[in-house]
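Researcher: Predict the fold of Purine permease.
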Amino acid sequence: MKQVAVHPVDEKLPLPRLVPLALQHVLVMYAGAVAVPLIIGRALNLRPEEVAFLISADLFACGIATLVQCFGLPGVGIRLPVMMGVTFASVGPMLSMAAAPEVGILGIYGSVIAAGIFGVLVAPFISRLLPLFPPVVTGTIILVIGISLMRVGINWAGGGLPMLPRTVDGQPGYVLNANYAQLTGLGIALFVLVIIMSLIKWGRGFLSNVAVLLGIVAGSVLAAALGVMHFEKVAAAPWFDVVLPFHFGMPQFHLVPIVTMCIVMVVVMIESLGMFLALGDITEKRIEQDDLTRGLRADGVGTIIGGIFNTFPYTSFSQNVGLVGVTGVRSRWVTVVGGIIMLLLGLLPKMAALVEAVPQVVLGGAGLVMFGMVAATGARILTNVNFKTNHYNLFVVAVSVGFGMIPLVAPNFFRNLPHGLHPLLESGILLAAIVSVLLNAFFNGIGSAEEARHEASASAAAAEHV
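Model: Structure tokens for Purine permease follow.
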């Protein structure tokens, strides 16, 4: 019998290759995965052991959500190499809820569960937006995603944020981070970057595929030798703990927090559209409307799981999109194993503490490579766009990128607009998506998804003949 060719996305790699590749994905996303429970836990004035539980719960739910997205359930999961994590878009609204005594942590969980149900219901409608995303739009959005992520990678290399949140006399504020951009940390980040680049150039096969992981390991060894990496939390953490649903009590449901979180969910799902289209291009797998529906529905299911297991809204992590581009490994089974590792880390606090001990400066060296790859993917998509005879496309890209940079270069630009609009306006990715879709519809009209793909192929062929 003739064997049917297996797409690289569905290729099952040997376990000795899968585990280090999966661990690489976990290390890349870990800092972002634990940041939100840390921020919200402190805002709620939880005890240190409760904050530690929030982190374990987050890792556990993160693993389940990743398995739902990559392995898939009937009608749920895009089955691409995606890692799921708590979205930062939800931080602002949840901080406001945490500050309201009548809402608190139980009100947050109620709004998260309600937003997840809302996400599952509206996923088919959001996925119908595919005809609005021809190559000029998707390329622009993915370019902005990469540029926006570079801020994360650069701050990692600097050792965190230049200004740290701090409450003074009951009022939220910021204080200068004295450890930011120290020469030792910058040297470690550069060391990691050099190791990764060297392995990519001179490594062969599997060694090149795990270049990011080996760079992080080498950077961690150097950080430990220089006294930058500490293991006190590892020694103090227990070996095993169980994550039970509704640890803090039954969720409470309040109308305003629910509506706010549903708005955040729409923002997250539109950003996810860009992530899925980027992954489809990187993995060379055609993404149809049904695929987008399943992927967006998994965002909603993951968010419901988050609310049940004492954590927050989930989305597809853009950090890991860049890693797929760097390694060239397209198998979704890598992130399936990554999901299993995250789930186990949630049950093994000591192992989670060991991964958490990796300094941000180490991750910074890797972040510069991976996030730059996302931007490069967007640029590569734009090379297939017809700019020569259709000069309107130039304006679509130019103005959209400009809007996408507003939250990045001027965070207070929209501060005088209604507070309810801030979740929509503080995401450069969402701004770029909205503006590029509107400008493309204005200049070029709206065709079918098939016409958009045909346009990309035709423009690429024309460019080759020229």
